[in-house]
Fold:
Amino acid sequence: MIAVVSTAFDDLRSADVRQRDTAVRYFFSDPETHVLSFPSVCRQMDWSVSAVRRRLKQTLSPLLVALESVELESQTV
Structure:
C-alpha cells in the first residue's frame, strides 16, 4: 500500500503530464471502489484523507504552478 502512495507522490513531480495528471486524480478524487484507492489506503493506515490532501496542496502548489507555466510557454512557441 505504501508503495502505491509513494509512486503516486513521485509522479506528482514528474515532467510527464500524463503521469502527473494520473497522480493528481489518485490523490484528489474520491472513488473507494478499489482497495488501493487513496481513501482506502488512508483508512487502512489511519491517516486523515483531508489532512494529507491539504498538506499535498501546500507542498506541491508552487511546483505545479511552475510546471503549468512551463507547459504553457512550450505550447506558445
Summary: The chain has one domain: 2-76. Confidence is low (pLDDT under 50) at residues 70-74.
